[in-house]
Design a protein that fits this description.
- With 154 residues, this protein is mainly α.
- Helix content is 55%, strand content 0%.
- The protein has helices at residues 23-46, 59-64, 73-82, 85-91, 95-114, 126-142.
- α1 (23-46) packs antiparallel against α5 (95-114) and α3 runs antiparallel to α4.
- The radius of gyration is 24 Å and the shape is globular.
């Protein structure tokens, strides 16, 4: 009696469940996000947010008279585009690290998409998240006291 045995197909030759694109087709979305970020930077460079009413007013400041954690962020980006890093930090100390983090993340996303790899999402643990929110609260309170005038937007 002659029996024929057929070996199962190796896992390496099976098609992935979600094929990824590489090259220009894979990098299209991250490059569009990068372009939107550059567009926002150009807009904030051309239209100065230091001019009263150019972009409206912060609703938190309008309702409470307190500077929120984001107040001065557009001014900080404008100062960065002018090359005034200290003025940028004075307007909003959070803007410089956030812009840097955005640039690094979009750059990593673009490179990985070009290679056909999946996006790597930033992840932080619970302790870091709570520490960040605690520092954000301290920053908000401090910038609204007489001792924190260096943190108020210019």
């Amino acid at each position: 009696m002659d029996s024929t045995h057929v070996a199962p197909e190796p896992a390496a030759q099976q098609q992935p469940a979600h094929p990824t694109r590489s090259g220009w087709r894979g990098a299209a979305v991250p490059l569009l996000v990068a372009g939107a970020g550059i567009g926002v930077g150009v807009l904030l460079h051309v239209r100065d947010p230091h001019v009263d009413g150019s972009y409206g007013i912060c609703p938190v400041y309008a309702l409470t008279g307190w500077w929120c954690p984001g107040c001065g962020g557009m001014r900080a980006v404008h100062n960065l585009t002018d090359g005034h890093v200290l003025d940028s930090l004075h307007s909003n100390v959070l803007a410089v690290p956030l812009v840097l983090a955005f640039v690094l993340w979009v750059g990593d996303w673009s490179v990985r998409a070009w290679r056909g790899q999946r996006v790597r999402l930033p992840s932080i643990n619970r302790a870091t998240t709570w520490s960040f929110f605690a520092l954000l609260a301290i920053y908000t309170v401090l910038r609204n006291t007489p001792w924190g005038t260096w943190f108020t937007p210019v």
